[in-house]
Amino acid sequence: MKGCFARMFRIALSAVLLSAGSVFAIIPADAQEKEIPKREFRGAWLHIVGNKTIATLSADQVKQMFLNALDSLQEAGCNAVIFQVRPTADAFYYSEIEPWSRYLTGEQGKAPEPFWDPLEFMVRESHKRGMELHAWCNPYRVTLEESDQLCKDHLYFSHPELFVKHGKQLYLNPAEPLARSYTVRVIADIVRRYDIQAIHFDDYFYPYPISGVEFDDQDAFSRYAAAQGFSEDQKADWRRHNVELLIQEINDTIKTIKPWVRFGISPFGIHRNKKDTPDGSGSLTDGLSNYDELYADVPGWAEKGYIDYCVPQLYWKIGNPKADYDILIHWWDKTVQNENAHLYIGQNISTFKEKDLQDPRKDQTERKIELTRTLPNVRGNVWWPGWSFCRNVCNIFDNLKNNYQRYPALIPAYSFLDDKAPSPVHDIHKNGRLIEWEQRKSNARDPMQKALFYAVYCFPDGVPVNIDDSRYLLKITQDTSYNVVAENKEHGAGCKYVVTVIDRCWNESRASRIIWY
């Protein structure tokens, strides 16, 4: 059996043999037959902070490391890369505001030699692979280790009053208006100069608590709290207010510069424990609270429209006695129901090796994926850490590539930012082995309608064209041509191809006219 029918045949197979070197696994028939959604966020975090290896490599070696990661993510069906670019109030990109990151060259403020811009490189290479690039920033952290040396031009030396030492680390003080405006300026600079699809913050707002050590912001509290309407016993509320001011201002700034660029937050997985909420609204968990100890009300930001997506880090196994993944994913699904903010799940790859509670012969992969695809408000996953795909940790690369993400997927449309679909492609035609097309010029001139990518579909002879069926989506590409012979190994006689336009908010055009091959 050959041609496009081969794909249909494989769907019906009862088992698929996967290989990664000498490692093999069998995918159960029932898992193989489950429908793959056409729209699903499939992101992965590529972290820089704490990675001291990068600074020991040449520019070419670092680029190859990044390319290997991107190739693995693309092959595993991912459609978004969350790349850390501001780890410790320094820049993993060219900036005239903040110094070069120590994690790139080994010394803060030292430019790479030969010169190159990692963010520019990753934007370009991600887009080549049909993947978004989200710029991951930390708003307040300044040092990671006590031995970290700040360069002479760092903001700390001109405005030390904006900083707080907490434990062994240095932080910008979230209460200081100048610290907030400085952070907003940094983010605005990234949004203006780079073709990113989102700004991303993770779980670090006020620092994680240290036993017996209070975050030293009493002076700022005395200066600002009363004028802001907070009494002496409302310090926690005041801290949450400080963070919310930053979040709101960043979102407003992003949308003023580029209305299509999103703002996403990835909080610690427990918002509040039920035992700590008088109304019982928290989750049935017993762990650190993002609301009470990091002073971040992420569901509140989603409700108010200050963020466009939320990715709670559910880094525990199903059955964890203090933080059960099953309990938490249901809690977040019921809590973030606002149509103006998407909900994705932060997945810790290492927990997927844990045994399934109902069938210890299996791990928890199938159940976790099932939950993300059946709960009504969950629209995808973000994988941690993304570097694990290169090593196939816990068989994640094989399982996603050959099963759960075996077809490409469009990101769920951000219709609350823009719900107007672009026009179909213009002048689609055959040119030898190529299918070529153009976007209509009127759409290309419109910032909200301009093509981010194109989707290429192939339907076997006898199968009607239906772009809602994920099985026939071949590729998401920024190119305006497709090589039928080189790119579709399953091509058979009588195949029908159509192309659609995907705009910056992932609205999809109608299908083009059919091209027969």
What does this protein structure show overall?
The chain is an alpha/beta fold and 517 residues long. It has two domains: 39-345, Glycosidases (TIM Barrel, Alpha-Beta Barrel), CATH 3.20.20.80; 426-516, Immunoglobulins (Immunoglobulin-like). It is built from 17 helices and 20 strands. It has helices at 5-11, 29-33, 59-75, 102-105, 118-128, 155-158, 177-193, 218-224, 235-257, 290-293, 298-304, 325-335, 365-374, 388-391, 396-404, 441-444, 484-487, and strands at 16-20, 23-27, 41-46, 80-86, 132-137, 163-166, 169-172, 198-201, 262-265, 309-310, 313-314, 342-348, 378-384, 426-431, 434-438, 451-459, 473-477, 481-483, 496-503, 515-516. The strands form five sheets. It has an eight-stranded parallel barrel, surrounded by seven helices. A four-stranded antiparallel β-sheet has the order 17-16-19-20, with no helix packed on it. Strands 14-15-18 form a three-stranded antiparallel β-sheet. Helix 7 packs parallel to helix 9 (235-257). The model is unreliable at 1-33 (pLDDT under 50).
